[in-house]
Amino acid sequence: MNFRLLSFLLLFYGTSVIASNTYLEDPDSYYARLKQLQPGDHLQLKPGIYRKGLPIHHLPGNRLAPITISGPSGQQSAIFIGRPGHNTVSIIDSSHITIRNLVIDGIGLPVDGIKCEGHANWAHHITLENLQIYGHDHNQEIVGISTKCPAWNWIIRHNIIKNAGTGIYLGNSDGRAPFIAGLIEYNLITHTMGYSLQIKHQLPRPSIPDIPTEKQHTIIRHNVFSKADQSSTGKAARPNLLVGHWPTDGNGKDDQYLIYGNFLYQNATESLFQGEGRIAFYNNLLVNHQGNAIRLQPRSAQSDHISIFFNTILTSEIDIFLAKPKNKSNSNYWITHNAIFTGKSATASSLTKNNLVYDYPLAGHYLIQPYLMPGQMNLNLISQDRMAPKLNINHLKNHLDWNVDFDGEISEQRFGAYTNETKPRWYPNLEIKPVLTTK
Protein backbone atom coordinates (compact mmCIF):
# COMPACT_ATOMS: atom_id res chain seq x y z
CA MET A 1 0.00 0.00 0.00
CA ASN A 2 1.23 3.51 -0.83
CA PHE A 3 2.81 5.04 2.31
CA ARG A 4 0.98 8.36 1.90
CA LEU A 5 -2.35 6.57 1.46
CA LEU A 6 -1.68 4.44 4.54
CA SER A 7 -0.80 7.55 6.55
CA PHE A 8 -4.02 9.24 5.42
CA LEU A 9 -6.15 6.22 6.36
CA LEU A 10 -4.55 5.99 9.76
CA LEU A 11 -5.10 9.70 10.35
CA PHE A 12 -8.69 9.80 9.08
CA TYR A 13 -10.12 6.51 10.32
CA GLY A 14 -7.75 5.39 13.02
CA THR A 15 -5.71 2.22 13.06
CA SER A 16 -8.73 0.02 13.81
CA VAL A 17 -9.95 0.06 10.21
CA ILE A 18 -6.68 -1.46 8.99
CA ALA A 19 -6.33 -4.44 11.29
CA SER A 20 -9.03 -7.12 11.19
CA ASN A 21 -8.85 -10.86 11.65
CA THR A 22 -11.14 -13.88 11.59
CA TYR A 23 -10.61 -16.36 14.40
CA LEU A 24 -12.16 -19.83 14.26
CA GLU A 25 -12.52 -21.05 17.85
CA ASP A 26 -14.14 -23.91 19.77
CA PRO A 27 -15.57 -24.28 23.31
CA ASP A 28 -12.07 -24.67 24.74
CA SER A 29 -10.36 -21.74 23.02
CA TYR A 30 -13.00 -19.04 22.46
CA TYR A 31 -12.95 -17.51 25.93
CA ALA A 32 -9.32 -16.45 25.83
CA ARG A 33 -9.71 -15.09 22.30
CA LEU A 34 -12.79 -13.07 23.25
CA LYS A 35 -10.76 -10.73 25.44
CA GLN A 36 -8.31 -10.03 22.61
CA LEU A 37 -10.80 -8.87 19.98
CA GLN A 38 -10.12 -5.57 18.24
CA PRO A 39 -12.21 -3.45 15.85
CA GLY A 40 -13.02 -5.33 12.68
CA ASP A 41 -12.32 -8.78 14.15
CA HIS A 42 -14.66 -11.73 13.61
CA LEU A 43 -14.87 -14.44 16.24
CA GLN A 44 -16.36 -17.42 14.41
CA LEU A 45 -17.46 -20.23 16.73
CA LYS A 46 -17.47 -23.89 15.80
CA PRO A 47 -20.45 -26.13 16.59
CA GLY A 48 -20.46 -27.29 20.18
CA ILE A 49 -21.60 -26.66 23.75
CA TYR A 50 -20.26 -23.46 25.32
CA ARG A 51 -20.44 -23.36 29.11
CA LYS A 52 -18.42 -20.26 30.12
CA GLY A 53 -20.84 -17.62 28.88
CA LEU A 54 -20.17 -14.74 26.52
CA PRO A 55 -18.94 -11.60 28.35
CA ILE A 56 -19.00 -8.62 25.97
CA HIS A 57 -17.11 -6.31 28.30
CA HIS A 58 -15.30 -3.17 27.13
CA LEU A 59 -15.01 -4.37 23.53
CA PRO A 60 -14.04 -1.46 21.25
CA GLY A 61 -15.82 -1.91 17.95
CA ASN A 62 -16.39 1.20 15.89
CA ARG A 63 -18.63 2.40 13.07
CA LEU A 64 -16.24 1.42 10.30
CA ALA A 65 -14.97 -1.76 11.93
CA PRO A 66 -17.55 -3.54 14.10
CA ILE A 67 -16.71 -6.68 16.02
CA THR A 68 -18.65 -9.78 14.96
CA ILE A 69 -19.25 -12.90 17.05
CA SER A 70 -21.09 -15.63 15.20
CA GLY A 71 -21.95 -19.29 15.29
CA PRO A 72 -22.26 -21.58 12.28
CA SER A 73 -25.13 -20.88 9.90
CA GLY A 74 -25.84 -24.54 9.06
CA GLN A 75 -27.75 -27.23 10.93
CA GLN A 76 -25.12 -27.63 13.66
CA SER A 77 -25.11 -24.92 16.33
CA ALA A 78 -22.95 -23.12 18.81
CA ILE A 79 -25.04 -23.57 21.97
CA PHE A 80 -24.47 -21.42 25.05
CA ILE A 81 -25.76 -23.05 28.21
CA GLY A 82 -26.93 -21.01 31.20
CA ARG A 83 -24.83 -21.16 34.36
CA PRO A 84 -25.82 -20.20 37.91
CA GLY A 85 -25.24 -16.60 38.94
CA HIS A 86 -24.26 -15.27 35.52
CA ASN A 87 -26.27 -13.90 32.61
CA THR A 88 -25.26 -15.94 29.58
CA VAL A 89 -24.40 -13.01 27.29
CA SER A 90 -23.33 -10.07 29.47
CA ILE A 91 -22.75 -6.65 27.86
CA ILE A 92 -20.85 -3.80 29.56
CA ASP A 93 -19.58 -0.57 27.97
CA SER A 94 -19.26 -2.01 24.46
CA SER A 95 -20.25 -0.66 21.06
CA HIS A 96 -20.55 -1.71 17.43
CA ILE A 97 -20.92 -5.39 18.23
CA THR A 98 -22.79 -7.94 16.10
CA ILE A 99 -23.86 -11.27 17.65
CA ARG A 100 -25.51 -13.79 15.35
CA ASN A 101 -26.32 -17.45 14.74
CA LEU A 102 -26.17 -18.65 18.35
CA VAL A 103 -28.45 -20.82 20.48
CA ILE A 104 -28.83 -19.58 24.07
CA ASP A 105 -30.42 -22.10 26.41
CA GLY A 106 -31.12 -20.91 29.96
CA ILE A 107 -32.00 -24.50 31.06
CA GLY A 108 -34.50 -23.04 33.53
CA LEU A 109 -31.95 -21.17 35.66
CA PRO A 110 -32.73 -17.71 37.14
CA VAL A 111 -30.40 -15.94 34.68
CA ASP A 112 -31.12 -13.79 31.62
CA GLY A 113 -30.16 -14.83 28.11
CA ILE A 114 -28.66 -11.53 26.93
CA LYS A 115 -28.30 -8.65 29.36
CA CYS A 116 -26.85 -5.18 29.10
CA GLU A 117 -25.91 -5.00 32.77
CA GLY A 118 -27.33 -2.42 35.14
CA HIS A 119 -23.86 -1.40 36.37
CA ALA A 120 -22.72 -0.60 32.82
CA ASN A 121 -22.48 3.01 31.75
CA TRP A 122 -23.80 2.46 28.23
CA ALA A 123 -24.06 0.03 25.31
CA HIS A 124 -24.70 1.22 21.78
CA HIS A 125 -24.81 -0.03 18.20
CA ILE A 126 -25.43 -3.62 19.26
CA THR A 127 -26.90 -6.02 16.67
CA LEU A 128 -28.55 -9.27 17.77
CA GLU A 129 -29.72 -11.43 14.90
CA ASN A 130 -30.60 -15.01 14.02
CA LEU A 131 -30.48 -16.08 17.67
CA GLN A 132 -32.55 -18.82 19.28
CA ILE A 133 -33.23 -18.11 22.95
CA TYR A 134 -34.95 -20.80 25.02
CA GLY A 135 -35.38 -21.96 28.60
CA HIS A 136 -35.53 -18.64 30.46
CA ASP A 137 -38.80 -19.32 32.27
CA HIS A 138 -37.59 -19.89 35.84
CA ASN A 139 -39.96 -17.05 36.80
CA GLN A 140 -41.57 -14.02 35.19
CA GLU A 141 -38.61 -11.75 35.97
CA ILE A 142 -36.21 -13.78 33.83
CA VAL A 143 -35.71 -12.22 30.40
CA GLY A 144 -34.53 -13.37 26.99
CA ILE A 145 -33.02 -9.99 26.00
CA SER A 146 -32.69 -7.16 28.53
CA THR A 147 -31.08 -3.71 28.72
CA LYS A 148 -30.54 -2.07 32.09
CA CYS A 149 -28.29 0.85 31.15
CA PRO A 150 -28.55 3.65 28.55
CA ALA A 151 -28.68 1.89 25.17
CA TRP A 152 -29.04 3.27 21.68
CA ASN A 153 -28.97 2.16 18.05
CA TRP A 154 -29.64 -1.49 18.83
CA ILE A 155 -30.88 -3.81 16.10
CA ILE A 156 -32.80 -6.90 17.26
CA ARG A 157 -33.88 -8.97 14.28
CA HIS A 158 -34.76 -12.47 13.09
CA ASN A 159 -34.59 -13.97 16.58
CA ILE A 160 -36.76 -16.69 18.13
CA ILE A 161 -37.53 -16.32 21.84
CA LYS A 162 -39.59 -19.08 23.43
CA ASN A 163 -40.27 -20.10 27.03
CA ALA A 164 -39.16 -16.95 28.83
CA GLY A 165 -40.48 -15.09 31.82
CA THR A 166 -40.38 -11.96 29.63
CA GLY A 167 -39.27 -12.04 26.01
CA ILE A 168 -37.57 -8.65 25.60
CA TYR A 169 -37.38 -6.00 28.35
CA LEU A 170 -35.69 -2.75 27.30
CA GLY A 171 -35.03 -0.07 29.92
CA ASN A 172 -35.55 -0.10 33.66
CA SER A 173 -38.60 0.28 35.86
CA ASP A 174 -37.28 3.55 37.31
CA GLY A 175 -37.01 5.18 33.87
CA ARG A 176 -33.26 5.75 34.15
CA ALA A 177 -32.05 3.35 31.47
CA PRO A 178 -33.35 4.85 28.20
CA PHE A 179 -33.59 2.70 25.08
CA ILE A 180 -33.17 5.02 22.09
CA ALA A 181 -33.39 4.69 18.29
CA GLY A 182 -33.88 0.92 18.27
CA LEU A 183 -34.92 -1.32 15.40
CA ILE A 184 -36.83 -4.46 16.44
CA GLU A 185 -37.97 -6.48 13.44
CA TYR A 186 -38.90 -9.97 12.20
CA ASN A 187 -38.73 -11.62 15.61
CA LEU A 188 -40.91 -14.48 16.88
CA ILE A 189 -41.71 -14.37 20.60
CA THR A 190 -44.01 -17.03 22.08
CA HIS A 191 -44.71 -18.85 25.36
CA THR A 192 -43.82 -15.95 27.68
CA MET A 193 -45.26 -15.58 31.16
CA GLY A 194 -45.15 -11.79 31.02
CA TYR A 195 -44.53 -9.38 28.18
CA SER A 196 -43.45 -10.51 24.75
CA LEU A 197 -41.81 -7.09 24.48
CA GLN A 198 -41.76 -4.14 26.84
CA ILE A 199 -39.94 -0.82 26.45
CA LYS A 200 -39.98 1.18 29.67
CA HIS A 201 -40.79 4.86 30.11
CA GLN A 202 -37.92 7.34 30.26
CA LEU A 203 -36.91 10.11 32.64
CA PRO A 204 -34.72 13.00 31.39
CA ARG A 205 -31.75 11.51 29.63
CA PRO A 206 -28.26 11.46 31.11
CA SER A 207 -25.38 13.36 29.54
CA ILE A 208 -23.22 10.66 27.94
CA PRO A 209 -20.77 11.03 25.03
CA ASP A 210 -22.37 10.09 21.69
CA ILE A 211 -25.88 9.59 23.11
CA PRO A 212 -28.38 10.84 20.48
CA THR A 213 -29.71 14.35 21.00
CA GLU A 214 -31.74 14.79 17.80
CA LYS A 215 -35.27 13.44 17.36
CA GLN A 216 -35.22 9.64 16.93
CA HIS A 217 -37.61 6.83 16.06
CA THR A 218 -37.75 3.41 17.65
CA ILE A 219 -39.19 1.02 15.08
CA ILE A 220 -41.04 -2.19 15.98
CA ARG A 221 -42.08 -3.93 12.78
CA HIS A 222 -42.98 -7.30 11.28
CA ASN A 223 -42.76 -9.21 14.56
CA VAL A 224 -44.99 -12.02 15.84
CA PHE A 225 -45.99 -11.68 19.51
CA SER A 226 -48.11 -14.56 20.82
CA LYS A 227 -49.33 -15.21 24.36
CA ALA A 228 -51.58 -18.11 23.46
CA ASP A 229 -49.65 -20.43 25.78
CA GLN A 230 -47.92 -20.21 29.18
CA SER A 231 -49.13 -16.66 29.89
CA SER A 232 -49.54 -15.56 33.49
CA THR A 233 -53.04 -14.64 34.66
CA GLY A 234 -54.49 -12.44 37.36
CA LYS A 235 -52.28 -9.64 38.70
CA ALA A 236 -49.21 -11.12 37.03
CA ALA A 237 -50.74 -10.89 33.53
CA ARG A 238 -49.04 -8.56 31.06
CA PRO A 239 -49.77 -7.30 27.51
CA ASN A 240 -48.02 -8.83 24.53
CA LEU A 241 -46.46 -5.46 23.70
CA LEU A 242 -46.13 -2.39 25.91
CA VAL A 243 -44.28 0.86 25.22
CA GLY A 244 -43.78 3.62 27.77
CA HIS A 245 -43.47 7.36 27.32
CA TRP A 246 -40.45 9.37 26.24
CA PRO A 247 -38.81 12.01 28.49
CA THR A 248 -41.26 14.78 29.34
CA ASP A 249 -38.66 17.45 28.54
CA GLY A 250 -35.18 17.81 27.11
CA ASN A 251 -33.56 15.45 24.61
CA GLY A 252 -35.91 12.72 23.47
CA LYS A 253 -39.20 14.41 24.30
CA ASP A 254 -40.16 14.41 20.60
CA ASP A 255 -39.05 10.83 19.88
CA GLN A 256 -41.66 8.49 18.44
CA TYR A 257 -42.49 4.80 18.21
CA LEU A 258 -43.32 3.48 14.75
CA ILE A 259 -45.10 0.14 15.26
CA TYR A 260 -46.26 -1.55 12.08
CA GLY A 261 -46.68 -4.82 10.22
CA ASN A 262 -46.82 -6.91 13.42
CA PHE A 263 -49.04 -9.91 14.24
CA LEU A 264 -50.26 -9.82 17.86
CA TYR A 265 -52.07 -13.00 18.87
CA GLN A 266 -54.04 -14.06 21.94
CA ASN A 267 -53.98 -12.81 25.52
CA ALA A 268 -56.58 -14.14 27.90
CA THR A 269 -56.18 -11.49 30.62
CA GLU A 270 -54.49 -8.34 29.32
CA SER A 271 -54.66 -6.34 26.10
CA LEU A 272 -52.53 -7.28 23.14
CA PHE A 273 -51.02 -3.78 23.01
CA GLN A 274 -50.68 -1.03 25.60
CA GLY A 275 -48.95 2.28 25.04
CA GLU A 276 -48.48 5.90 25.96
CA GLY A 277 -46.53 8.88 24.65
CA ARG A 278 -45.80 9.51 20.98
CA ILE A 279 -46.85 6.45 18.96
CA ALA A 280 -47.82 5.60 15.39
CA PHE A 281 -49.46 2.15 15.28
CA TYR A 282 -50.47 0.97 11.81
CA ASN A 283 -50.78 -1.95 9.37
CA ASN A 284 -50.90 -4.47 12.24
CA LEU A 285 -53.05 -7.57 12.74
CA LEU A 286 -54.50 -8.04 16.24
CA VAL A 287 -56.35 -11.25 17.02
CA ASN A 288 -57.62 -12.00 20.51
CA HIS A 289 -60.44 -14.51 20.80
CA GLN A 290 -60.09 -14.40 24.60
CA GLY A 291 -59.72 -10.74 25.56
CA ASN A 292 -59.00 -7.11 24.66
CA ALA A 293 -57.00 -5.58 21.82
CA ILE A 294 -55.59 -2.10 22.57
CA ARG A 295 -55.32 -0.06 25.75
CA LEU A 296 -54.13 3.55 25.70
CA GLN A 297 -53.26 4.37 29.26
CA PRO A 298 -51.15 7.42 30.08
CA ARG A 299 -49.25 7.00 33.34
CA SER A 300 -47.21 10.19 33.28
CA ALA A 301 -47.48 13.94 32.85
CA GLN A 302 -46.51 13.67 29.20
CA SER A 303 -49.21 14.33 26.64
CA ASP A 304 -50.06 11.49 24.29
CA HIS A 305 -49.82 11.87 20.53
CA ILE A 306 -51.07 8.54 19.21
CA SER A 307 -52.07 7.60 15.66
CA ILE A 308 -53.82 4.26 15.10
CA PHE A 309 -54.72 3.51 11.50
CA PHE A 310 -54.89 0.74 8.88
CA ASN A 311 -55.09 -2.03 11.51
CA THR A 312 -57.31 -5.11 11.44
CA ILE A 313 -58.60 -5.86 14.93
CA LEU A 314 -60.51 -9.01 15.86
CA THR A 315 -61.33 -9.15 19.57
CA SER A 316 -63.97 -10.89 21.64
CA GLU A 317 -63.80 -8.06 24.19
CA ILE A 318 -62.87 -4.34 23.93
CA ASP A 319 -61.24 -3.08 20.77
CA ILE A 320 -59.54 0.19 21.82
CA PHE A 321 -59.83 1.33 25.41
CA LEU A 322 -58.88 4.93 26.12
CA ALA A 323 -58.10 5.63 29.77
CA LYS A 324 -58.67 9.16 30.97
CA PRO A 325 -55.58 11.22 30.05
CA LYS A 326 -53.89 13.26 32.76
CA ASN A 327 -53.50 16.12 30.28
CA LYS A 328 -56.68 15.65 28.32
CA SER A 329 -56.57 19.06 26.63
CA ASN A 330 -53.05 18.43 25.31
CA SER A 331 -53.47 14.84 24.15
CA ASN A 332 -54.08 13.98 20.52
CA TYR A 333 -55.58 10.66 19.43
CA TRP A 334 -55.99 10.02 15.70
CA ILE A 335 -57.82 6.71 15.21
CA THR A 336 -58.99 6.05 11.67
CA HIS A 337 -59.30 3.60 8.77
CA ASN A 338 -59.19 0.50 10.99
CA ALA A 339 -61.25 -2.65 10.34
CA ILE A 340 -62.59 -3.57 13.78
CA PHE A 341 -64.63 -6.57 14.94
CA THR A 342 -65.32 -6.17 18.63
CA GLY A 343 -67.17 -8.08 21.32
CA LYS A 344 -68.00 -4.95 23.27
CA SER A 345 -69.14 -1.51 22.21
CA ALA A 346 -66.37 0.45 20.54
CA THR A 347 -64.68 2.96 22.83
CA ALA A 348 -61.81 4.97 21.39
CA SER A 349 -62.62 3.75 17.89
CA SER A 350 -65.93 5.58 18.10
CA LEU A 351 -64.13 8.91 18.48
CA THR A 352 -63.94 9.12 14.70
CA LYS A 353 -66.38 8.06 12.02
CA ASN A 354 -63.76 6.72 9.64
CA ASN A 355 -63.39 3.19 11.04
CA LEU A 356 -65.14 0.06 9.85
CA VAL A 357 -66.69 -1.33 13.05
CA TYR A 358 -68.79 -4.50 13.42
CA ASP A 359 -69.68 -6.87 16.23
CA TYR A 360 -67.25 -9.73 16.82
CA PRO A 361 -69.79 -12.48 15.84
CA LEU A 362 -70.14 -10.84 12.43
CA ALA A 363 -66.46 -11.24 11.54
CA GLY A 364 -67.26 -14.40 9.57
CA HIS A 365 -69.55 -12.37 7.31
CA TYR A 366 -66.97 -9.72 6.48
CA LEU A 367 -63.56 -11.44 6.77
CA ILE A 368 -62.59 -14.43 4.62
CA GLN A 369 -61.44 -16.89 7.35
CA PRO A 370 -61.18 -15.08 10.69
CA TYR A 371 -61.62 -17.97 13.14
CA LEU A 372 -59.10 -20.48 11.80
CA MET A 373 -55.79 -21.28 13.47
CA PRO A 374 -52.56 -19.37 12.74
CA GLY A 375 -51.23 -20.45 9.39
CA GLN A 376 -54.77 -20.76 8.04
CA MET A 377 -56.60 -17.59 9.09
CA ASN A 378 -57.31 -15.02 6.40
CA LEU A 379 -58.22 -11.58 7.71
CA ASN A 380 -58.80 -9.95 4.34
CA LEU A 381 -62.15 -8.24 3.96
CA ILE A 382 -64.50 -10.08 1.63
CA SER A 383 -65.50 -6.69 0.32
CA GLN A 384 -65.55 -3.14 1.56
CA ASP A 385 -69.17 -2.14 1.89
CA ARG A 386 -68.25 1.51 1.99
CA MET A 387 -65.37 3.34 0.39
CA ALA A 388 -62.61 4.35 2.76
CA PRO A 389 -62.02 8.10 2.67
CA LYS A 390 -58.57 9.35 1.73
CA LEU A 391 -56.10 9.98 4.50
CA ASN A 392 -54.38 13.28 5.14
CA ILE A 393 -50.94 12.60 3.67
CA ASN A 394 -49.39 15.48 5.62
CA HIS A 395 -50.25 13.68 8.83
CA LEU A 396 -48.40 10.59 7.64
CA LYS A 397 -45.25 11.95 6.00
CA ASN A 398 -43.00 10.92 8.90
CA HIS A 399 -44.49 7.44 9.27
CA LEU A 400 -42.18 4.98 7.53
CA ASP A 401 -43.99 2.53 5.19
CA TRP A 402 -47.38 3.92 6.19
CA ASN A 403 -48.86 2.96 2.82
CA VAL A 404 -47.43 -0.59 2.73
CA ASP A 405 -50.06 -3.03 3.97
CA PHE A 406 -49.41 -6.08 6.18
CA ASP A 407 -48.72 -8.18 3.08
CA GLY A 408 -46.38 -5.79 1.27
CA GLU A 409 -48.96 -4.20 -1.03
CA ILE A 410 -48.98 -0.45 -1.68
CA SER A 411 -52.30 1.09 -0.74
CA GLU A 412 -53.31 4.56 0.43
CA GLN A 413 -57.07 4.09 0.71
CA ARG A 414 -58.52 1.16 2.67
CA PHE A 415 -59.97 -0.08 5.92
CA GLY A 416 -57.70 -2.41 7.87
CA ALA A 417 -54.29 -3.96 7.34
CA TYR A 418 -54.95 -5.53 3.92
CA THR A 419 -55.57 -4.18 0.44
CA ASN A 420 -58.61 -6.43 0.11
CA GLU A 421 -56.96 -9.32 -1.70
CA THR A 422 -58.48 -12.80 -1.70
CA LYS A 423 -55.33 -14.72 -0.80
CA PRO A 424 -52.53 -13.26 1.37
CA ARG A 425 -48.91 -13.83 0.43
CA TRP A 426 -48.28 -14.98 4.02
CA TYR A 427 -50.98 -16.45 6.24
CA PRO A 428 -50.36 -15.05 9.77
CA ASN A 429 -48.61 -17.79 11.69
CA LEU A 430 -46.49 -18.45 14.78
CA GLU A 431 -43.23 -18.29 12.87
CA ILE A 432 -40.84 -15.56 11.82
CA LYS A 433 -42.67 -13.39 9.34
CA PRO A 434 -41.00 -13.58 5.92
CA VAL A 435 -39.66 -10.45 4.29
CA LEU A 436 -42.35 -9.53 1.78
CA THR A 437 -41.02 -7.33 -1.00
CA THR A 438 -43.19 -4.37 -1.86
CA LYS A 439 -45.33 -4.81 -4.96
Defining key terms:
439 residues, mainly beta, Pectate Lyase C-like, 2 domains, 14-stranded parallel sheet, 12-stranded parallel sheet, globular
Quick overview of this protein structure:
The protein is mainly beta. Helix content is 5%, strand content 34%. The relative contact order is 0.07.
Percent of residues in helices comes to under 10%
How many structurally independent domains? Answer: 2
Low-confidence stretches: 1-17
Q: What number is the mean pLDDT? A: 91
What's the shape?
Answer: globular
- Estimated share of beta-strand residues: 25-35%
Largest sheet data: 14 strands, parallel
Number of helices: 4
Q: Indicate the radius of gyration in whole angstroms.
A: 22 Å
Write the layout of secondary structure elements.
Blueprint: H1 3-13, E1 22-25, H2 30-34, E2 42-45, E3 48-50, E4 54-57, E5 67-70, E6 78-81, E7 89-92, E8 95-100, E9 103-105, E10 114-116, E11 123-129, E12 132-136, E13 143-147, E14 151-152, E15 155-157, E16 160-164, E17 166-170, E18 179-180, E19 183-185, E20 188-192, E21 197-199, E22 217-221, E23 224-226, E24 241-243, E25 256-260, E26 263-265, E27 273-275, E28 278-282, E29 285-288, E30 294-296, E31 305-309, E32 312-315, E33 320-322, E34 332-336, E35 339-342, E36 356-359, H3 363-366, E37 367-369, E38 378-381, H4 393-396
Parallel strand pairs: 1-2, 2-5, 3-6, 4-7, 5-8, 6-9, 7-10, 8-11, 9-12, 10-13, 11-14, 11-15, 12-16, 13-17, 14-18, 15-19, 16-20, 17-21, 19-22, 20-23, 21-24, 22-25, 23-26, 24-27, 25-28, 26-29, 27-30, 28-31, 29-32, 30-33, 31-34, 32-35, 35-36
Antiparallel strand pairs: 37-38
